Amino acid sequence: MCKRFKLPILFLLISIPAFSQYTTSASKLEKHVNYLASDQLLGRGFGTPQGKLAAEYIAQQFEEAGVDPYMGTYFHHFNARNGILNIPGINVVGIIHGTHPQLKEEYIVLGAHYDHLGWKAKGSDTIVWNGADDNASGTATLIEVGRNLAASPESLGRSVVLAAFDGEESGLLGSRQILKDNVLHPHKVKLMFSLDMVGMYEAHEGLDMKGINLLHDAEYLTQALAENHNIHVSKATKNIEQRTDTAPFGKYNIPAIAPSTGSESPYHQPEDTAAALDYEGMALITNYMSDMTQILSTREELSSMTGLAEGESMPPEIFTAGIRLNTGNSRFNYRDQAFKGKSIFAIQAGLFTSFKLGKLVYVLPEVLYETKGSQHYDGKIRTHALTLPLSLALSTRDDAYVRVWVQAGGYYSYMFSGQQGGQDINFDDAFHRQEYGLIYGIGMEAMDMMQMGLFFQHGLSNLHRLPSQNMIHENIYFSLGWRF
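Given the sequence above, the corresponding C-alpha cells read:
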C-alpha cells in the first residue's frame, strides 16, 4: 500500500465505532435476580439487615467482575433522617478506569437502585415485596455491564462508575446523597444512566430510553447500534425521568438517561418475582448498554448539557411554574342570618407559579378559571370567573424528596358569567362581578414535580348588591398540580 494513504485510512478505521461482540449470559443475570429477589432478603427494605446483605452481594460481584472499589472502598455509607431516627443507607460504588489521557478524569455513571419495599406480616404469613423487576433486574444488568467493560478496560476513554443506589423507593435518597456528599463530584460526571425495571423486554415490545435525545448522536444509538444488538427502542425522549435516580443528576445539568422496559411486571406488588422476568431480553439490553457505554466513553462531546465546571455550584431555582386542578365544594355564608347555603361542586383549573424569596419563603401567584356557587332560595347559583390567588408560603427545605409548606394570602375574582335558577345572572342590578377574599392552606411537593394540597377560600366582599342580602363565598379545595 502506498504510504501516503496509510494515515487517512487508519484514522477512518479508528473513527468508525466498532460493534463490540459482548455475549452476556442470561443465566448469570438470572442468578443475580434469584438471590436479590429471594424471600431470604425480605424485599431489600431501606435500612434493613437484608438490604445490607444485598449491598454486600453486589460488592462481591463487582470484585469478581474486575470492577475496582471507588476511592478505596465499595461502600458509601449515609444516613437519612426520619423523624427522630437516622436510618443508615449504603450505596455500592465501583469504577473501571478509562485510558484516555484527559477523558479518564471524567465519569460516565451507570446506576441502578437495589432497594425495594420490604415485607409485612399478615396473620401467620409473611408477605414479601421481592422486587424482581423493580429493581433486581437493573442491579443484575449493572453487574454484568460492569463485567463486560472490565474485561477490556483499554477500550474505555472516560472512566465508568458503577453505582448501586440504596433508598430510591424512599425518595431517591442514595443518588441524592452521593452527589450531596461529593462522593461523585458533579463536575466530573458527564453522563448518567439509571437502569430501573429492565426485566420485561418481550412483554413491553422494546426498550424505552427516556432522555437519550439529550445526546448529540442519539439517532445512531437508538437505531443502528440498537439494531446491531437486536434491540428495538420503543420510546426515545429528551425529558429526564423524575421518578428514578436520573432526577438528582439532571438537577446538576448532567444528561441522565433512564433505560426501562416499563411497568408490565406487577409493579410494587408481591407478585413481582424472579420467575416472571425475561432473562434473554435482559441479556440483549446488557450487551447494548455495554457497547453504548464503551462508544460514549470515547466521544469528546456528549451533550449540550455539560454538567458543572469545577468549583461551580448550581444556581438556586428561583422560578417554577406548572398546571393545577382543584376540586371541592362551595357555599354561601349569609353573614346577617343564622344559616348557610347548601354546598355545590366547585372546580378551579389553570396555571401556578412560584418565586423563591428566601431559603424557605415563596410567593405563589396563580391564574385560574373557577366555577362555584351555592344553593339559594331563589334557585341554585353557579358563577364562572377568572380568579387570581396570591399567597405567601413558608416551606421546608427544597432539596428534600418531599417538600411541605403552609400558605396564606388573598384572591381576586372577576365573574364573567353565571346563572341563578336556570336564568342568566343580572350583574348590573343584583350581583357584583368582582369578589375578593382570603386564601390559606397546606401543600406538599414530591420529586420536584407533583403537588397536592388542601386550601380554603373565604370571601370578604358581599356578592349581592343589596345590603340586606349579605352573602359571601366559602370554598374548600383539594389540589393537584404538576410542575413543568
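The chain has two domains: 21-296, 319-483. Try to locate this feature in the C-alpha cell string yourself.
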